[in-house]
TrEMBL record:
Gene3D superfamilies: Bordetella uptake gene, domain 1, Periplasmic binding protein-like II. InterPro entries: BUG (IPR005064), Bug_dom1 (IPR042100), TAT_signal (IPR006311). The lineage of its organism: Bacteria, Pseudomonadati, Pseudomonadota, Alphaproteobacteria, Acetobacterales. It comes from the Bacteria. CDD domains: PBP2_Bug_TTT (cd07012). Signal peptide: none annotated. This is Tripartite tricarboxylate transporter substrate binding protein. Belongs to the UPF0065 (bug) family.
Length: 330
């Protein structure tokens, strides 16, 4: 062949390439078209009966009807709500038949342990962002602290003695109170409990000065045993229209600890889309909206790409807070 002559072309080469590409894409297409053909497992990493359990069970029932398959809710409590993530990272197949609640404690945990159990950036497939919690600070109704200004004044007058309960060390609410204390230049004492309702009961009994947690305090506030000083949502809670937000009190913070759903890494995009669409429909269903309203849970929908972007952004914050506060769980 003379120098500079074009290489010979095979008439079948383009057709073969297209056929090869179609062949590679076909299994994924078939998987998505056939999905789901059996029940799906949704791991809730908390005991039955809580707000997240109720909200996710409602979604599972509604989404299951759309998918034509039962979504079985499996409660796996313990390890600060991370057993679902642990199962995804170590055992679950990326076929779409096992998903779990993804919350910020899972994103945070690798930065609290010497040996990280997973990488939140790469070890999960993010499906949909859903909702969060209403957080706030409450004191015993007979406390001399009447409002948020009084709370800060007491903290300044009694450095290192004003106590607050949370549902555990390195929880979102614990980190938020550390941030508030830093901004307001006050010294507070953290008293962690195993669960939010235990902390609320301790405050009502006078064992702790205050609670900074999700709305496990609500029944005691409505029953008159506790006084709610502030909420951490973007706007005032509909159930507590007279209670100011942190922003209204001069602290530019919104804390709702958003959560969503995730599966194992490597899930087929078509399957992710099917799951996303079913759970989105369930999230916006009036029945699920009623459950969220019952627990004052804000709607915080994010599609799959937006939810992944949110997690990647949050990873940096969680890493910096763990380093700044020198938080360790081992």
């Amino acid at each position: 062949m003379p120098p500079g002559s074009p290489a010979p072309r095979h008439p079948w080469s383009r057709r073969a390439a297209l056929g090869l590409a179609a062949g590679l894409a076909a299994p994924a297409l078939v998987r998505a078209q056939a999905f789901p053909d059996r029940p799906i497992r949704l791991i809730v990493p908390w005991p039955p009966g809580g707000s997240a359990d109720a909200q996710l069970r409602s979604m599972a029932e509604i989404a299951g009807r759309r998918l034509g398959q039962t979504i079985v809710v499996e409660n796996r409590s313990g390890a600060s709500g991370t057993l679902g993530a642990q199962y995804l990272a170590t055992q679950a197949r990326p076929d779409g038949y096992t998903v779990t609640q993804m919350h910020l404690g899972i994103v945070r945990r690798p930065y609290l342990l010497r040996t990280p159990p997973w990488d939140p950036a790469t070890d999960f497939t993010y499906i949909i962002g859903l909702t969060g919690w209403l957080f706030g600070v409450a004191v015993k109704s007979s406390s001399p602290i009447r409002d948020w200004a009084g709370y800060l004044a007491t903290a300044r007058a009694r450095p290192g003695t004003l106590t607050y309960s949370t549902s555990g060390i390195a929880t979102t609410n614990h980190l938020a109170m550390e941030e508030i204390a830093s901004r307001e230049k006050v010294e507070l004492v953290h008293v962690p409990y195993r669960a939010s309702n235990e902390g609320a009961t301790a405050v009502a009994a006078g064992q702790v000065d205050s609670i900074a947690d999700s709305s496990a305090w609500a029944p005691l506030v409505e029953g008159g045993q506790l006084r709610l000083l502030c909420v951490w949502s973007a706007e005032r809670a509909a159930r507590y229209p007279d209670v100011p937000t942190l922003r209204e009190l001069g602290i530019d913070m919104v804390v709702t600890s958003p959560y969503g759903l995730a599966g194992p890494k490597g899930m087929d995009p078509g399957v992710v889309r099917i799951l996303h669409d079913a759970f989105k429909e369930a999230l916006f269903d009036p029945a699920n909206a009623a459950v969220r309203a019952n627990f004052d849970m804000p709607l915080q929908y994010l599609d799959s790409e937006q939810y992944r972007a949110f997690i990647l952004q949050r990873i940096d914050y969680e890493r910096r807070m763990a380093e700044r506060l020198q938080l360790r769980l081992d």
